[in-house]
Amino acid sequence: MNELFLKIINMSISASWLILAVLILRLVLKKAPKWVNVLLWGIVAVRLICPLSFESALSLIPSSETIPLDIEMAAKPTIDSGVPAINSVVNPVLSSFAPPQHVLTSANPLQIWIPILNIIWLIGVGALLLYTAVSYWRLCRKVDTAVRYKGNIFQSENVSSPFVLGIIKPRIYLPFNMNGQDLEHVVAHEQAHIRRKDHWWKPLGFLLLTIHWFNPLMWLAYVLLCRDIELACDEKVIKELGNEQRADYMQALVACSVNRRMIAACPLAFGEVGVKERVKSVMNYKKPAFWVIIIAVIICVGVAACFLTNPKQDRYTLRIVVPAGSQEEFVYTEEEVSTVRNSIKIWSGDGLGDTEVLLFPVNKTAETGYTATYLTHGMSVEFDAENDTWFKIGVNMQNPTNEDIIVYVEVENVEVRIVDEINSVIEWFDYLETPDEMKWDGSLEISLTEFPDVTFRWTYGEMLAVKGSKSTSLYTGMPIWNAYFCDLTGDGLPELCSSISWGSGMIDNRVIIYDYANGVSYELSDRGYFDFTLRQDHQDGRLYVDKTKYHTDELVETGRLVFKNHCIQIEGFSNEAHQVFQAEILEIHDGNYLVKPVEGSWELSSADRIEVPIRNVHPSPEPEIGDVIEIEYAGEILETYPAQIADVYGIKVIEKNKGFTHLANDD
Amino acid sequence: MDFPKIHESEYRFCLIMWEHEPVTAVELVKLCQDQLGWKRTTTYTVIKRLGERGVLKNDNGTVTSLVSKDEAQACEIDELVEKKFEGSLPAFIAAFTKHQAMSEDELDEVQRMIDRIRKGGSQ
Prior knowledge:
The complex is a heterodimer.
Chain A: H1 2-28, H2 35-49, E1 55-56, H3 84-97, H4 110-142, E2 147-150, E3 153-155, E4 163-165, E5 171-174, H5 180-195, H6 198-211, H7 216-238, H8 243-256, E6 268-269, H9 275-283, H10 290-307, E7 310-311, E8 315-322, E9 330-332, E10 335-338, E11 343-348, E12 355-361, E13 373-375, E14 381-384, E15 391-396, E16 405-412, E17 415-418, E18 426-430, E19 443-448, E20 451-459, E21 462-467, E22 470-476, E23 480-486, E24 495-502, E25 508-515, E26 520-524, E27 530-536, E28 543-549, E29 555-564, E30 567-570, E31 579-589, E32 592-597, H11 602-606, E33 610-613, E34 628-633, E35 637-638, E36 643-645, E37 648-655, H12 661-666
Parallel strand pairs in A: 1-7, 3-5, 33-36
Antiparallel strand pairs in A: 2-3, 4-5, 4-6, 8-16, 9-15, 10-17, 11-14, 11-16, 12-13, 12-15, 18-23, 19-20, 20-21, 21-22, 23-24, 24-25, 25-26, 27-28, 28-29, 29-30, 31-32, 31-34, 32-33, 34-37, 35-36
Chain B: H1 8-20, E1 23-24, H2 25-36, H3 40-53, E2 56-59, E3 62-65, H4 69-84, H5 89-99, H6 104-118
Antiparallel strand pairs in B: 1-3, 2-3
Helix pairs in contact in B: 1-2, 2-3
């Protein structure tokens, strides 16, 4: 029901643009025959009646759907009027209605307001319908004793000025005291109304006014429609008349001019509106030149083409490269898309078969998770998408061949940005490239504008964050070989990325990423099996991780350092096909979680107690006993008791324990 | 007694009634439909309304007039003279004869009527 109301408002708004255009055209078309004006109002009516419209590049309607139909559900309600000036005024006001973020219980106040406005609208429609019905009925009563003059012409003492009444069998009603010549002209006028089917158009106009009563432009349009109908009707009558008869016709016009209410519901009256204007128009009437008619018709067709169609939506074709040999599940667009309409529509483009598609929010602050949806050729998939969030579009595709495959997706309703991550890598130092220059007894310091009150201090063995007189150890190494700043997580604040060596006797190389903003670190290591080192690629300027066999230079894999699924990963690494399972935390000790996999998970059939090293934990909320966490790991479980997982790539809480949280804290 | 008011459209109805009376209501409905374009209900409403005003009486579906055509016409003229000619009959006659050319026969008839009134005759 609210949806119908919002649809009506949207139709009203888009028709308003057309009404404004007609108002302007009426000024231009003063010389044109008057029926052109009526035809223009007809186009307005079509726009108001027809709920569907096709898109065209010619469209001059700024927006086909100003108010999104799900605005009351939107986390951040916005309109899209198609006019930036209007949007920038209205949207901040609408946004102030939005519930404070992270408060789940409070509703968007529009959820209350829209139904109220809906009811007010319905009451208005009902009142106008009732008014129309009552005045129609009273008029019928008034003229029921009218006597037939001839044919469909009736006379009644209750009629003060002539009019046409009735839809199916229209009758002309006249007063009794009307003499021969006046009567003839009046009847000619009313018969012309009937021939022009004005007794249909006018009630139709009034019906549309009844529905769109809240729109002042509609009232103006209806008043002008009534005038234009009379002028066009006069025109039709006097076309056949000589000059002398025209004077008589005007005489009759004046004789019948009676002050009437402007918006009378139904009947077509002879002396209804603007007698002065009509007399002037009759006097000035010249048979319009053929070319004037041609131009007028062209204008009408133009108006129809420009205003009956909806604006073409911006459609983008985005490229996705599926690298040779890729076994990843999802591959993503380089570009990122964002919407202001709370939804994103995707079609499959060239080269893409039927596959799964998903939206991946690039900044982790996005509240909604986006599940993959099956995309079939020729059919669109529409995702709910938060406004002002940037997404990459992913498709589920593997590439067993030796060559890159390029596929395309088409996307609508969006802005597209090309992410330039290259600039966001800041090299601090890299002694892996120049080991001879390593300052074993020196230190380095750097300050970033992103962290204004912090100085990062490197000595070969430790990375410190110095804040005033207080310094905090971020991580240690033996030594710390290099350091880069790069915003991997997309929160606008760079992480500190380093290669370090570790251990004595058995020394392995690791990569550590320290998210200073959140105070959390990620580490890539596989002690005794593989070494990991970080480097900046000289060609594309991005950070890459090389995985070599332990203590050799034998390169196993190399890939870009990326942040995905809430953890740091190496793009293109074979172990990226991580396994994920959910488990409840039973105990926390010695840097491990002891967990029990949830019912129904494959892991539970393997072991009912698993030790999980506390590594790569998503900082908020912090896992506690009783919480259900999601663990991303390499897929390998060591068959001890309790069973163990070696490589953990990500841990995050998906369900807080309700009853026992405080108990566990108090322990 | 005050003469009952008959509106223009009701007068059209009365003309039919006077022509055909005594006449059944059913017949009047048919006649009114043909000549006035009235609905059945409209005819019955008008019969009832005029009955209440004492213009006609309806005895079990047979309608007869209580006011003759002449009386009604005379009354209309009285009203017209009163309204438009300030009650002056000569002014009315003068206006009437100004535009309507009268034949010799008509003039004689009018003269005879005047003579009759002079003698104190009722007609």
